[in-house]
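Task card 7
Instruction: Convert sequence to structure tokens.
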Amino acid sequence: MSAAGRPRRRLAVIGLGMVVKPHLMSLADLAERAEVAACYTPSAERRARFAKDHPRLPLAGDLDAVLADASIEAFIILTPPNSHLDLISRCAAAGKHVLVEKPLDVSVARARQAIAAMEMAGLRLGVVLQHRFRKASLRLKALLVGGELGPLISGSAGIRWWRPPAYFAEPGRGTRARDGGGVLLTQAIHTLDLFLSLTGAVSEVGAFAGTTRLHRMETEDIVGAALRFANGAIGTLDATTASYPGFPERIEIVGEKATAVLAGGGLELFYQDGRREAVAGAQATGGGADPMAFSHEAHRAAITDFLDAIDAGRPPRVSGAAALAVHRLIEALLRSAREARTVAVAG
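Output:
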């Protein structure tokens, strides 16, 4: 039991690649609430490197043994997207709650299967879409819920990031088989999920997508689109990983009373009555050559919410079901670009 009277949960971390860093930093901060009981990767070479860098953390080389450990209540899954459905299904069968790195899987159909497996088992499934937990994002969400900006007139999202060609040299990176997609599903998904959580549903899209000469990859690295929201408002999307040296992602929401601009982790509000408001935030958001150049604060908040959800028996704030909205939008955008026509976004 933690000092606050809450149970201290034993967790397993599955996948020890690049993205493990903010999770381990967050779990260290949350040591009173969570204990890292096992760290697993099938790669002996990666286990050896991890042991050198993290000598105090318990390593595991047998996933079946970790799943069978009744003292471990939850898994944090940080593996490539195409492995998520299998791992989530195995966790469901073993009675483990799951927090999985985005995306849920490589397609909406597989994401739905993962959600169904956890729901049938009565377990919590959360998705790491941590931009919703930034201080500025929470402030803007509260203002929108309170009607301070008025009804939506327009919304735009711009993700002009940079990934060097060497980034896509890793086997499988940027492929449909492993990652399921390019800039939309791998990078822009964070901003798009936050965007939808603020604006509400997009009903129709008209998109163009392509791959620039800067990257040798199977999937898209640049997308431009027009959006129609469910309330009839009009918006735009601009996403790429070809914009050197990488810039903070930007969301602009125009309401009948005010305009809000989220740039990176900061927020500016411009009210028509002359008032202005600003919420400061970190500008380093992983949009440049180093994808991990950002604070772990939002990851810590996401993991905290996941632990709270287990304690309270409620869905995490970004549950599997909640994350489906951004998956459906991404599939509609890619279908629109592929078929050269406007496409309705599935409900």
